Amino acid sequence: MENIDRVVKRLEPALVAFALGLILLDVYTFFQYALPHIAAHSGRPAAALHVGWSLLLLFNVLWNQLHCTFTSPGTTLEVHEQALHLARAQDWRWCRKCNRGKPPLCHHCSVCNRCVLKMDHHCVWMANCVGFFNYRYFVLFLFYMWVGCAYSAAVFWLHVPALFSLGEPDWESHAFLPFFMFIMSASVWLALSALLSWHVYLILTASGTIDSLDFSAQQDAARAAGRRWVNPYDLGRVANWQEAFDVRGRWWWLAWMLPTRRRKLGNGYVLPQADPGGPMGRLDPSMPLLRPGATGSYV
Ligand SMILES: [Zn+2]
Ligand SMILES: [Zn+2]
Question: Ranges for the Palmitoyltransferase DHHC domain (predicted)?
Answer without folding.
Answer: 91-211
